[in-house]
Each structure stands twice: as structure tokens, then as C-alpha cells.
Amino acid sequence: MSDQDALTPRVILFRHGETKWSKSGRFTGTTDIELTRAGAAQVSLAAARLVGAGKLVDPLRLVHVFVSPRVRAVRTFELLLPPSSGVVAGKVTYTEDIVEWNYGDYEGLKDQEIRLLRKKRGLDLERKWNIWSDGYQGSKLPNGWTG
User: Fold this and answer.
1) How far, rounded to the nearest angstrom, does the alpha carbon of residue 1 sit from its chain's CA centroid?
2) Is 100 tagged catalytic?
3) Phi-psi region of 135 (alpha: psi -120 to 50; beta: other; left: phi over 0)
4) Active-site residue, from 18, 34, 100, 113
């Protein structure tokens, strides 16, 4: 990495490794699900390639780290940036502000199960359901959000 690149401010997002639900295609938002062994291995492999002096994520150059309090996210953070990496505890914030969506009635369901549920409720009779345009049912959204 060039000196100029190393000084350029950036935001880097890491998604957690595999969970039982992500592997099986279940919608996972607020449910606290741990990483699988394969998920932990995915994160460890990513850390070896991407984290360290002169790599994409240099722990000593991090200004702040935000982590979802979900166990899958916390474990991902621990594997990516263990205490030996040099990240100062005061630079880390665990916050609900970056958690995954609350899928409401769809939490833990697979795509096809959601489609069947919606049809039973009289929805999507003219076109297929789309999470981005149709949203989800049965969850309380944060102030100002629509779903």
C-alpha cells in the first residue's frame, strides 16, 4: 500500500462469517446466532489476508471500530482484530445502531417460506415479493424508517 493510500480516510465494512441460518438461507436479523466452525475459518482466512501492517486493514491506523453486539459480529471482530493486533479498547464501540434488520414475521424463515406466508395473507397475488420494495411484516422499525 502506498503512503498516500495509507493516509486516505476510509470506511471498511466486514460482514460476519457463516452461521447455521446464513448457510441454510434463513433471514437473520435480530436473532443472536453464533458462527459455525466454517464461519470462524472464513473470518480467520480473511484476517490473514487483509489485516496487518501494510495490508488493507492496519490495526495501528484504525481510528475507530464499530461492532454490532450480536454474538456473530462480536466473534468476527475478535477473530479479525484480536487483542494482540494492537487495537486499543477505547477505539471500539459496540452499538445497536449497526445491527442487521429486524425481519419481524420473516425472521428465521427461508425465501420460499416467506412467499408462501405472504400468499396465505393475500399478498403478492399480482407480482412476486421483493424485500427491497415490499419490505417485511411484523417488526417495529426505528424512528424515520419505513418497511
Assistant:
1) 27
2) yes
3) left
4) 100
Q: What is the DSSP letter of 107?
A: T
The C-alpha torsion from 66 through 50 and 30 to 41, rounded to 10°, is: -140
pLDDT tens, residue by residue, 6-55: 567 788 889 999 999 999 999 998 999 999 999 999 999 999 999 998 89
Helical (H) or strand (E) element with 120: helix 111-120
Instruction: Specify the pLDDT at position 141.
Output: 59
User: What is the three-state SS of 55-75?
Assistant: CCECHHHCCCEEECCCHHHHH
Place of cell 466473534: 75
Q: At which residue does the C-alpha cell 415479493 appear?
A: 129
CA–CA separation, 116 and 112 (whole Å): 6
The question of whether 16 is a catalytic residue gets the answer: yes
